[in-house]
Amino acid sequence: MLTREVLNFCKRVVSPSVVIAACRRSDFAPILPSTRRIPQILVVVRKFQPRLMNYVKVFGGQNISILAVDSWVFERDVDRGFLGEAMASALIFPYEVLQNADYLYSQEIILKKRLIIELLESLVLNFPELSQELRIKPEYFLYETMLSRARLFPPTFYALVGLTKDDEGRKKMEPVLRGFLEALKELENCNVIDRTNEHWIIAKQFAEKSKGLRARFTNLFKTGQRTLFVSSLGIFPQILEALSQNRESLLGTQVSLEDLRIKQVLSDPESFVYVPTGTKLVPLSNRLDITVFARRALSADKDAKVTIENVGGMLNDVYLVETMTQGKRTRAIVKQFRDWSNFKWFPLTLWSVGTKTFAVGGNLRLERECAINRLLDSKGFAVPKLLGISPGQRLIMMEYVDGEDLSNIVKSGATSKNAEETEKALNVVFEVGKTFARVHSLKVALGDTKPENILLSEKGDLYLMDFEQASRNGDIVWDVAEFLYYSGHDISPFSDPKRLEEFAKTFIKGYLAAGGKRETIKRAGTARYTKVFSIFTYPHMMYVISNICRKADQLKD
Q: CA 62, CA 466: separation in Å to the nearest integer?
């Protein structure tokens, strides 16, 4: 009955245009109480003007968001990512058909054929000599598609909770996989991929075609375009709507998001891609090289037990390695530097055009990590000790440091009602400002100064981490801007603006106290830098922070 009522409403509001299909999109419902959920209905309309329109209406006492899109726009988003899949993404995750299942399924297959082609291009570019030997299971395309979107826009992890937490959730994945299987069969007829038993192999003709530079550029552009539009048109509005309904529920899920990043709620896609050896198929997810490297770097004997846990699910391939030798436990962090062919920092590169250039080559990033780490260590800064390096495998091993990353401390400093806790957090932020100024006095820019890359150890030392974007004579203004604006990403949008001002002023005062220049702070408040981080932080918070930066001359040291 409710479905009919919703469809009747849709037909009335788009009249005289005609609704040709409708479905309920996968949403972020698993993290909210049932009374607070806002279902989103996607309606495809023929010859719809305006091309895109969002309606929110109450049906049966429940708010429902209705997103109406012109069929021409929707089909091009499916076929070529016209809107970065902001609309087409409804067909990637499980969806409930409300009208015209045949049309939606046909569009789903078109979309998944394109997604498979893009993923195959990425495999060819990452493994140019090995790509035609790879054996691929269909699950690879399913999990890589979902996780790649979660890497590019982390709140997507919320949508995955309901797909993986129980048997019922996993059953929802079955129709998604069926769509990929049908797409693979059609691509087999197009000489894109071949089938052998339960595996699929990249066709030789397709592999040779995909090795060109043009394919690499096209793949990069598609990813950046997808991220930008999904963030602005697709996912972000849903989050805002849910936030307005139940801000406490959403704000209370930040720990869960971190857990999901670390535990990887979906299977590792690379566990479904295999390399043939003389005796068996070995998955790409195999960590043998890291194990051998860990034993050598930690001077553990060959019989020592080595465990490896993936702890970097977003921007880096990072592993926590633990060895046990005669009852003694040793822990370290191993970082693997891959070329960023179609994910990770490229979306930020797209947004930051004209502001900052990022290093993307694996060898270059490894070189920067080592060089800046050693430089700062020699100057007395607290950084993780380098324990080993394998340039051939692009591996680096570093000391494991126990402590709390600054994202939680920043949050406490801006939102805590406990005066003592707030003062403690602000004292830490003041020291961060001083540390940045001391680093900048060496003519070194850290490059990636998100709060999560700064660790407060159990002994109270501030550890600087992640130097793969650091450089000598780099943009020190970027360091200030990223720390302040990205901190807003960790702070509740409902925080008292005065608390936010106090946080920003405390950092700036620390920076100036250690010899940092006011001009650096003032430049961080300009549009050149605010435009980049506006995608991560709420506008009113951006304004408060940038306004304080521009008025740095008025602050006392």
A: 46
Best CA proximity match to 232, nearest among 495, 549, 440, 536: 536
CB atoms within 10 A of CB 78: 25
Cα 173 → chain centroid: 22
SS3 341: coil
448-478, pLDDT tens digit by residue?
898 989 999 988 899 999 898 898 888 999 9
Helix H or strand E segment including 43: strand 40-46
Q: What share of the chain in percent tops pLDDT 70?
A: 73
Residues 135/199, Cβ–Cβ less than 8 Å: yes
287-399 CATH fold: Phosphorylase Kinase; domain 1 (3.30.200)
The Cα 305–Cα 295 span in angstroms is 9
Q: How far is CA 383 from the centre of its chain?
A: 25
The contacts of residue 368 (CB under 8 Å, 6+ apart) are 359, 447, 467, 468, 469, 470, 471
Of how many residues is the chain composed?
557
What would the pLDDT profile of 43-73 be if each residue is shown by its tens digit? Answer: 999 988 888 888 878 887 778 888 889 999 8
Rounded Cα distance, 412 and 409, in Å: 5
What residues contact residue 538 under an 8 Å CB cut-off, 6+ apart? 488, 493
CATH topology of domain 404-554: Transferase(Phosphotransferase); domain 1 (1.10.510)
- Residue 510 is classified by DSSP as H
Cα–Cα dist 194/192, whole Å: 7
269 forms bridges with which residues in the sheet?
Answer: none
C-alpha to C-alpha distance for 178 and 199, rounded to whole angstroms:
15
Which CATH number is associated with domain 2-274? 3.30.460.10
- DSSP summary character for residue 54: E
